[in-house]
Design a protein that fits this description.
Layout lengths: L9 H17 L10 H20 L4 H27 L5 H28 L1
Helix pairs in contact: 1-2, 1-4, 2-3, 3-4
Length: 121
């Protein structure tokens, strides 16, 4: 297996930047959401970069792909949390659209990277 330094992976960097933006947004959620939506969206968004990092340390490309799949699912979870936040008026449509666009792009990058690993197997 080709070793990947996760810090050098563009998907990892984008996922970290995305997490920072989601954290900033979630600061404005109501205080009574601290153990609800705030906690859920923060755990999901950090899971993206954490799984990319953890997966990069595996011994096989196939194992790395499993962690990328988890990262992808976490991204979908973030998108759902953002939609709930929008519907509850915890964020405006402009911020929502920007974050969803970024989430979609990261998801596409994860899928593309995973496919490239598959071709290396």
């Amino acid at each position: 297996m080709k070793k990947h330094n996760f810090r050098n992976l563009k998907i990892y960097q984008r996922a970290i930047d995305f997490a920072v933006e989601v954290y900033k947004l979630s600061r404005s959620f109501p205080k009574d959401e601290i153990f609800g939506l705030t906690n859920q969206v923060r755990r999901a968004v950090t899971s993206i970069s954490l799984n990319i990092a953890e997966g990069s340390g595996n011994k096989s490309e196939k194992e790395f792909q499993i962690f990328l799949e988890i990262a992808l699912r976490s991204g979908y979870e973030v998108m759902t949390c953002l939609e709930i936040a929008l519907r509850l008026d915890y964020c405006d449509k402009k911020n929502y659209d920007l974050l969803i666009k970024e989430a979609d792009e990261i998801a596409a990058m994860i899928v593309g990277f995973s496919k490239s690993l598959c071709s290396d197997i």
